[in-house]
Amino acid sequence: MDTMLEARLQTQQRNTQNSQETSLWSSGFGMKLEAVTPFLGKYRPFVGRCCQTCTPKSWESLFHRSIMDLGFCNVVLVKEENTRFRGWLVRRLCYFLWSLEQRIPPCQDAPQKIMESTRVQNVISGRVPGGAGEGQVPGLVKKEVQRILGHIQAPIHPFLLRLFSWALLRFLNCVFLNVQLHKGQMKMVHKASQAGLPLVLLSTHKSLLDGILLPFVLLSQGLGVLRVVWDSRTCSPTLRALLKKLGGLFLPPEANLTLDSPEGVLARAVVHAALAPLGLWTGALAVLRSLRGWGHSPRVCVRVHLAQPFSLQEYTINARSCWGSRQTLEQLLQPIVLGQCTTVPDTEKEQEWTPATGPLLAFKEEDQLLVRRLSRHVLNASVTSSAVMSTAIMATLLLFKHQKGVFLSQLLGEFSWLTEETLLRGFDVGFSGQLRCLVQHTLSLLRAHVALLRVHQGDLLVVPRPGPGLTHLARLSAELLPAFLSEAVGACAVRGLLAGRVPPEGPWELQGIELLSQNELYRQILLLLHLVPQDLLLLQPCQSSYCYCQEVLDRLIQCGLLVAEETPGSRPACDTGRQRLSAKLLWKPSGDFTDSDSDNFEEAEGRYFRLSQQSRCPDFFLFLCRLLSPLLKAFAQAATFLHRGQLPDTESGYTEQLLQFLQATAQEEGSFECADRNLAISAIWTFRDLGVLQQMPSPAGPMLYLSPTFTSRENQEKLEQFIWQFICS
């Protein structure tokens, strides 16, 4: 769920500061007003489709070609037409009448069904470790089951739920201008609900209001009561009792115990039985902690994004067939970093950062891996279905193109250009309107981090404020990175390939002379893919790295950065008619890349590329390289910090050490975009997977140690140089 701030100028009364900002804009530029639309051509891009490889039936059946024709609806706009009654009194009581007409399903006999479930019966009969057969009385176990179930949920109170819906509707109308919901996305969810199977909703925690907004939205669209999983540690007993009456679910503390704990076995059995047969939506949603400050902020617009549903049963069947050989990051990259070999192994990276705690412990290792890879599919769908906001586009331009300042007249054109480039890549944007009004409103939102200076020519100079404000701009710009991620990875890989050939400060024409073979490009892209964390790459687990390499190369060619170079005596790349047919298979599954398929890449050895010499290419190339610079610079500075850090230390303690070093370096070099806690954590986890850091148990908890391989300063410098080759200063 994204918060979309209103793009139109507010005609309401402004304070003195806003009046001063308006005066800066009063001097026009004599330019024609340009309208920015959230789509190219006739239709808005449809985003958030499910995986065609793992869920092909859902990809086809839960999507209609007419969905893109549908627009948005305002779910908090309730009028007389939304009720069964008419009249002047209805127009004044339409909110209350609407809440009375909401469909609330009757309460089912959940305790009896849970007691009869196979898993709970196995615990009661003692057929599993920790059951009643190991010294417990079945009657006491039944009481314990009822106690655990009472902690999880309570019967829904219809009157209380209707009263809460009425109050929430009035509250949302006071806070938001509108709450937008795509009719096409909602139509897909309705079609999935008609199958009669449980629907599970996963949220990406983008707002503190998710926990109350999403249940209201889905209830208003006729999907019944949304069961929301809350964290009991963040709620008081009174609030927990109220939320249970409204459909809230709370995991019992025993569910997080170890597998050999009898209480943990019983609690996990009850949780398993309570969350599937009820046929309710569940999800780990953010908790509403505080509403203070909403009344003083301007009214805004909100958009709720729903990705395409898919069948979990279909996924579990097809996803297992996509598993291939995998190696750890230490096995893949450490020999190359240390110069012990140059060949990248033909296997995928195994990097799972999801902690195996709570109910996940009850699964087998194979099922745990299935859940982790499912989370990567869900993360990919949620990110691609989220709209890009105007603040993300503005922050990207100011941080990576104009950190020293830019004239407003130039910024208007580049804002329009970057918006169009985002739409061309199939991503949605959450704003529209007149270009000048959009840029004015966006800069007003960033006024704490941007300075506006009037120059003699009547133009305005927009300058990012130096200091920690650049860190905030970097966080905002991260929302735009998925749209340009493939090109950014490719540009950094080309930078790494040219690092040992031409000086980075050399002219663009000198770099364009170099021939880049396709195999060399593949190798550099693979090295960078292995280095960058998977949660940033959004690489689906069913997608081969070699397929992604080809996608990256195709993107570089499509955007005009690379052009094919025909070597003397070679067959032209466009000449497909003279290819000789091989006696082997002429096609294979897209993800099937094994050792026997190495001959399929023999033709790539004769393919070469050059950097394009078009006038726009140098700036665009630098722009793409700088999109990944906050992460890569944080990794390089973390490598520099290895000989300064105090180890052994806990993960949280070493994170604080590294963060303080990043902040101190930012004060010296001005690289505030790297001084972020999340980047520090990502660097530590990556170095742990790479074998630079080792985690060992201790009485005080897991401790981080410096690996014996990287205690030498020489190997630390090799790691630092390996990372710096991808960074364009």
From TrEMBL:
A GO biological process held by the record: phospholipid biosynthetic process
Any GO CC annotation of this UniProt entry: mitochondrial membrane
Keyword terms, alphabetized: Acyltransferase, Transferase
InterPro entries from the UniProt entry: GPAT/DHAPAT (IPR022284), GPAT/DHAPAT_C (IPR045520)
GO MF term list: glycerol-3-phosphate O-acyltransferase activity
Pfam families, per database record: GPAT_C
Limits of the GPAT/DHAPAT C-terminal domain: 302-695
Name under which the protein is recorded: Glycerol-3-phosphate acyltransferase 2, mitochondrial isoform X3
